[in-house]
């Protein structure tokens, strides 16, 4: 009789673009491995600054500063990977403004990087933004717009 009476309302988490640029499906990246890490999209950046796509806690900073992990209060794990094969730059051209354990707000600058250096020396500057634990999501909607604006374009909506 009371089945379903106390169901929790679904929570929707919106991830904003961490960088401005053209939106690229994960399946079109030069490295196909990214599409197997989870659900998301990538952005061909037009600027060298990465902002937090959601509020949360920094869960990981790669030693080479080219990738950041963020966990939202709802438990979504987000990977922002700046460029393809940028690990080979060994941190050159990257300045990380946060550290693991920091709580961040949406739009807060996480990493600044030399876009020119990444474009010249990496395979690609394209930056995947991936939910690595999509199994938490009841529904996931990806942005279909051709361009993203940092801090304002909603890249993903995840219903938890």
UniProtKB/TrEMBL annotation:
Q: Which domain of life is it from?
A: Bacteria
| Any single Pfam family the record assigns to this protein | PTS_EIIA_1
Entry keyword Protein biosynthesis: no
Return one Gene Ontology term, BP aspect: phosphoenolpyruvate-dependent sugar phosphotransferase system
The main place the protein resides is cytoplasm
Matching InterPro entries: Dup_hybrid_motif, PTS_EIIA_1_perm, PTS_EIIA_component
User: Gene Ontology cellular component?
Assistant: cytoplasm
Q: Keywords in UniProt for this one?
A: Kinase, Phosphotransferase system, Sugar transport, Transferase, Transport
Question: What is a GO molecular function of this protein?
Answer: kinase activity
Q: Where in the cell is the protein located?
A: Cytoplasm
Instruction: Describe the location of the PTS EIIA type-1 domain by residue ranges.
Output: 31-133
Q: What is this protein called?
A: PTS system, glucose-specific IIA component
């Amino acid at each position: 009789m009371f089945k379903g009476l106390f169901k929790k309302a679904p929570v929707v988490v919106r991830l904003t673009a961490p960088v401005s640029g053209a939106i690229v499906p994960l399946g079109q990246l030069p490295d196909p491995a990214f599409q197997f890490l989870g659900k998301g999209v990538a952005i061909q950046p037009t600027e060298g600054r990465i902002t937090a796509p959601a509020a949360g806690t920094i869960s990981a900073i790669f030693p080479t500063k080219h990738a950041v992990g963020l966990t939202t209060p709802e438990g979504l794990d987000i990977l922002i990977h700046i460029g393809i094969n940028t690990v080979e730059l060994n941190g050159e051209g990257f300045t990380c403004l946060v550290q693991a354990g920091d709580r961040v707000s949406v739009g807060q600058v996480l990493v600044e990087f030399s876009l020119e250096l990444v474009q010249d020396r990496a395979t690609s500057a394209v930056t995947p933004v991936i939910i690595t634990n999509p199994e938490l999501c009841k529904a996931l909607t990806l942005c279909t717009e051709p361009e993203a604006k940092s801090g304002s374009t909603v890249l993903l909506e995840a219903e938890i």
